[in-house]
Amino acid sequence: MSTSELPEGWVTQVKQAWMLPPFLKQLQKRQREQALLEQLGDCLEYLYRDPRQPGLNLETLRTNTPQPVLSARIDRSNRLILAPLPGSQIGLLYFDKHEEAYDWVRRQGPRLATMMTKQREAPRGTRFSAGLSVMPVVRADEDSEIALASAAQFRQMVDNGVARYLTYLDDEQRRLAELRMSGLLLVKGGAGTGKTAVAIHRLLNLVRQPVLFGPRRVLYLCYNAVLARAIGQLVDALCAGKRPEGIEIRTFHAWCLDFLREHNLHTPTDRERPRSKDLVAASYSSLARDRRAVLGDASGDFIFEEIVQVIKHNGLNAREQYLKFNREGRGIGLKETQRDVIWDIYQSSETTRRFEGFFDWDDLPNMAMEFLDRLPSPPHYRAVIVDEAQDCTPVMMRLARRLLADSNGPLTVFADPAQAIYQHGFQWTQRELRPAGGNVRWLRKNYRCTREIYDLGRTLLEGDPSLEGELAEVQPPERHGSRPALFVACRHDELIGHVVENICAETKRRPANQIAVLASRSTLRGLADRLSTSGVPHELIDRPQQLHLESATVKLLTPQGTKGLDFPVVFLIPSRYPRAMLSEELSPESRRTLYVGLTRASEQLTIGTVYESHPPLLELLDPDAYTIDGPCGREFHGTRGTRLPVGG
Fold first, then answer.
1. How far apart are alpha carbons 179 and 177 in whole angstroms?
2. Which of 140, 252, 261, 520 lies at a CB distance of 3.0 to 4.6 Å from 146, suitable for a disulfide?
3. Which of 303, 441, 280, 465 is nearest to 360 (CA)?
4. Whose CA is closest to 188, among 398, 410, 444, 559?
5. Among 57-61, 169-173, 590-594, which is the least confidently predicted range?
6. Rounded to the nearest 10 degrees, what angle do helices 521-533 and 492-506 cross at?
7. Dihedral (C-alpha) 337, 338, 340, 342: value to the nearest 10 degrees?
């Protein structure tokens, strides 16, 4: 199996070492063996010092691959399997006990040549401790592995020392990914339970199923453009850049937009939503005084939101539908006479809008539905997957069903009601889906966050009656870590300086793409300037095309743009909205938005704020669940809760 003679082409010095997919899988399986991991780190150090030194006891393994494969001594019982890579680089391929390592090489045979994908750099000084955050490896089948490119989405997904959930889907996740059933499958789960991972595997599983007749295409839909971009990159990485034919990954709005453009229909621009608000205001003003009086003090914004969120998002096409619609979740009740007036305003503004020939984004799903019904041969898909459905509207669910070739075809919907950041939450969309007990499944284990991060976020959700049953279904994570930190600055520039300083320190300990900053766009732009000055590579993600998971850059995003993603290290700077009422800033939607930001962190979470302009929601966080720091930390702690209403 081996010879002591070094092969031609073996490096004389090691400039870079890379962890390859099988090595990463083995690393996760052996995380509890601290002594072995320490000796593995020593072996790597010896390779960097002199890759030809006798102490490594290097042996060349006989394989059927053109690439040399070697074995190095870790300790008296264990061997490291490695291979030379171009440019004075080496790949760490596998490690195990002596005979088991050699037997693994024999079993892989020619497949070894397909396992040389650089996954994660192992720079000099790397210690393979149990807390090391490494990239996941995804099993393609029982005997082969496919590398997943360095994706910030799936970090530190460990369940009590077990392999990451992308490496080994747990039994329930695997059942859901491979389940063959017609009709609706609604999968619920909290943040970090693996919904998006299961969605990806189910997408690939569905498209690979044999098709006897009908369309082969499978459609993945979501609301968030950044998530759609990330899913596309992850699927491509899973498939080694060869995405199976028949997969489409889109947002709902992008699908509708392309569909309408394909049929030469006018489509909206970002500039047209203000025009829609103007039309609603003009229609209100044109009402007779007694009709306006029926609405009382209802503001123009409230009327516009009622038209968008209730009428358009639910695809209500007739006055009677609106008068009878269950509006629970809007927060403010409306009498039937008031609804009647709002319908008049809606019809008047719609008449003008159609006459002028413009549309805004809220019209897209309804327009697509209307045009689909007129086509003799509308587009169809064998199966549809909807991810992050808590952000999607009821009419989007209707559209997803409409796109199925078979009305009872597979429609898989993934949702976390606790992450619904819009006023009506998930209840209206769930009502549209009409799930029954047999087609609702739960993912209960949290594989992402530490228990400390989970506990901090949980305080924001407790007391929300719409989530009472949902929260009871989710199990807290077993993995522990450091407590989240709250840094309270006295000035905004002081806060930004602290974040930049800590990012600079973190980039010396880990790849930059394991770090994210979540804040408002204006804050991110200022932060990007400071990072540029400090020479820190970063991506300010204003548009989904700017997201590159594999690039070694710190990711700068809004909290709303991180749905489905997570990062080992997160700096969260929540926004304060000066014109918002206190009740709005403490609303369930605001709490869930902050919860989304908190739960993007898998290892370390730092919340940054400026004293006296901090969001009131921070005062609701359990002070025992975080550490407090910063020049104004003591002042914040002393005044915490003094401005909140009793019971707030």
1. 6
2. 140
3. 280
4. 444
5. 169-173
6. 60
7. 170
